[in-house]
Amino acid sequence: MLFGMLSLAVIVMRESRIAYYQPGFKSPLYPWVHIAGMIIPGWLIVEMGWMAILFTAGLLAVGVAWFMFYARHRVDRGGAILHVFERLGRRVWRGLDDELRTIMAEKGLAEEDPLEELVAHADIIDLDDDEVRFEDAVHLATLALARKDIGIDPDAMAERIIEQARQGMIPHTHHAMLPHLLDEQITESRLVLLRAAQGIATPYVDEELYAMLLLIGPDHEPTQHLRILAHLGNRIEDSDFMDLLLSSRTEIQLKEALLREERIYHLWIRESAQSGHLVGLPIREAGFPSGALVALVQRANGALLIPEANTRLKEGDRLTLIGNPDALTDITHRYGTAYLPATQPG
Predict the structure, then answer these.
(1) Mean pLDDT confidence for 253-278
(2) Which end of the chain is more exposed for a tag (fewer CB within 10 A), N or C?
(3) Domain span at residue 201?
(4) Is cis: bond before 31, omega within 30 of 0?
(5) Residues 323, 294 share a domain
(6) What are phi and psi of 10, to 5 degrees?
(7) Helix, strand or coil, per DSSP, at residue 69
(8) CA distances for 75 relative to 4, 61, 62, 145, 326, angstroms
(9) Using CA atoms, how far apart are residues 105 and 72, in angstroms rounded to an integer?
(10) Domain count, the chain
């Protein structure tokens, strides 16, 4: 009986067409294998005789009675079947999307996920004045994206996000909110980090907000979008995240707050050190591993540069590299233990 229900569940999940439902294995010959998986167990129960039939019927009767008289008024009914109803003009259950996000968070990022590039090129909006309204914060974030000429209407995108907030569909925790969208007109993922030191006023959540991370992505990459979203959500939930974010003084420190320590490396360019051979070289010839990205260059005079492939490295430069742990381990073997951001070697 359970096997038959599982076969039915596969059909329901497939027909729900949930973007976030991306199983690691898909059974072949759908739906015929699953239809057979529902019919054959019923036939087997019948073949087992009257005792098996009565026992199965008794289980069903007890289950239905328990649900009708006890559980029905104590649970929030929902599931993938409501996504099937959505296709027929009825409602959808967002709780299943949340469960799938949790599964993605446990799986972690894939090697091809462009988290480092996404953070390195993220737009930063830092508001130090009065408290800002949530609607105004959203419009500021979508305008920042529109300036990148990624083919979006900032006002239409802002309205979609605000409507999601009204419906309680935007994740939020530890004083940060994480709105996100998939759109067919978007060609690559983009991220905006907005920090409001005096808070973000909104009636849609029951906690004080000081940060908003807006993530958008192409609708043909829903699983990659979800993995990145899950990583950002996990980072927000870290106990040190908001303290790091509110204490950050520079753009790179704000971006570093989005990454865990094992994904950040600071390299000082010194002729007298192991990095001396990099002086005068453009970044493209520095030979850093492919899994690492130079996110920022700080000159000896304190000037900050957004690096390009042709940016030449100079004596006294401090490079901030972000990347996957394996790439940064390789760099550590070449140049030694990374220095802390506020520390300069003597």
Answers:
(1) 80
(2) C
(3) 110-256
(4) yes
(5) yes
(6) -60, -45
(7) helix
(8) 24, 19, 18, 41, 45
(9) 31
(10) 3
How many residues would you count in the chain?
346
283-301: per-residue pLDDT in tens?
888 888 887 888 778 888 8
**Crossing angle between the packed helical segments 50-66 and 32-47, to the nearest 10 degrees:** 120
What gap in Å lies between CA 312 and CA 305, rounded to an integer?
11
The alpha-helical segments, DSSP class H, found in the chain are 2-16, 32-47, 50-66, 81-87, 94-107, 115-120, 134-146, 154-166, 222-237, 241-247, 251-256, 325-335
Residue 261's identity, in one-letter code, is E
DSSP three-state, residue 176? strand
Asked whether residue 325 is assigned to any structural domain, the reply reads: yes
* Residues 237, 160 share a domain: yes
Q: Which of 256, 274, 302 is the last residue of a domain?
A: 256
Backbone angles phi, psi at 173, to 5 degrees: -170, 155
pLDDT bucket at 155, cuts 50 / 70 / 90: confident
pLDDT single digits (tens) 127-136: 887 888 889 9
In a domain, 20, yes or no: yes
275's tokens: 């990095």
pTM of the predicted model as reported, rounded to 2 decimal places: 0.60
